[in-house]
Structure prediction request, 459 residues.
Amino acid sequence: MIFLKRQLPLAITFVMGVAFAIQYYVPHPVSEEAITNVSKWMQIISGFALALGLASLFHVHAVKIKRQVPGWGYSLVLYITMVVTIVVGFWSRGETTVDGAKTGLGWLYDNMMVPLQGTMFSILAFFIASAAYRAFRARSPEGEQRGPARHSHRREHGTGRPVAEDHPGHRTRVPWRGEGPVKDFARRMIGIDRRIIFLLIAAAVLLPLLRPFGLPIKISPEVRAVYDYIEALPERSVFLLSFDFDPSSKPELEPQAVALLRHAFRKNLRVIGMTHWLTGTGLADDIFSRVAAEMGRERGKDYVFLGWSPGAGSLVIAMGQDLYQAFPSDYQKTPTQGMPVLAGVRNLRDVNYMVSLAAGNPGIEMWYVFGKDKYRFEMAGGSTGVIAPGLYPFLRSGQINGLIGGLQGAAEYETLIKRKGTAMAGMDAQSATHFVIIILVLLCNVFYFVLRGEKGKAN
Prediction:
């Protein structure tokens, strides 16, 4: 039994890993056929794994609800929303749009999934701000006065002023209010209600979004490299754009996608779109449809969105062998064979340029390892600001020829194509927010040192 549970799976994993590591360097027809077949098996296995995970999720939370363990209410909410989503999905036949109209599943995705995932970063920012506020208060004289519960408060002999002590021999006189207007003002600012700080940050974000003031944008070489390469492509060249992100990264990567699509459609390129992130499928199709309608482009003739398929790296390899076997139909269930936009395109070797807009993995690194390095097409990357520094080694070594990093990179690309979008307004808001935070940090440090001098005199 131990052999079947542990040793056999490990042996299979080891043998298959070694075999396909060798296959990567053996461009023989038999080797290529083997990887194509295995890629199909992996897609089938991925489907079963998804179903198994869903069944396990249902079972775990059903047990919690039945036993009413602590927190079972959250399990009930999850259970209800999962059931509703599955029912609506079957009722909509898995389609988010039909003849341009949103289905029930499309409405759930746009009005529930996208806002909830975007809200995660807002909640994270709130907790970071709260933690920083508490950490600062803990180090300030006011924080020490209100600090650990183990402190006892006594009166200093002869003055009647309170003394805070945490052990014999360590006594600190708590500053007395009214010892000068400067120190009194500093003490009040140190103890400012955190909600005022949040309101200042909210104003710094919202006002530039409503009334952008157009700060100058400096174009970086890595962003210009992407623009120049697309600009130099002949008409009807094949441009592959991979939407490797989900709604949580929409604020940074959607402006990049919109700018790239506007540029590609303006150059009259044939655009192929796809995604490796299942939860980003509806978002990617919506971006494609909006920009194509704006630029007067036709689905199937000027662009195609292939959608999502399991497999990640194995899917890229399958596309490198035969695009039509990897994607027999597009996201709209239209057969890909015979589409005018795919005329003359058999596999990834026929792609003239490729850009992966990535929020993580699978993304740019995977496309390079399994795509560009194997099938020899030129590629660039677009990423969120947080992962962009880790991609610069790929840029410096020439593994990718350009990089659009975060909202700043999107604003630079909008400047290059001379089409203002949400990225340029977002950079105004980001700059204003950074300015407010810097001012607050400087003021707080000034106030802290003013009160720290008072504490030293007391000691």
Remarks:
- The two ends are 71 Å apart (CA to CA).
- The chain has 16 helices and eleven strands.
